[in-house]
Amino acid sequence: MNINFSVRSLIMADVPAILSIMREARREYGLEGRVASLLEPSDLALYQTYSFPRACYFVVVNSDLVVGGAGIAPLGEQAPSVCELQRMYLDPSFRRKGAGAALLDACIAGARERSFTHCYAETIAEMSGALKFYSKHGFQRLNAPYGNTGHSHNDCWLLRNL
Question: 157 in a domain, yes or no?
Answer without folding.
Answer: no
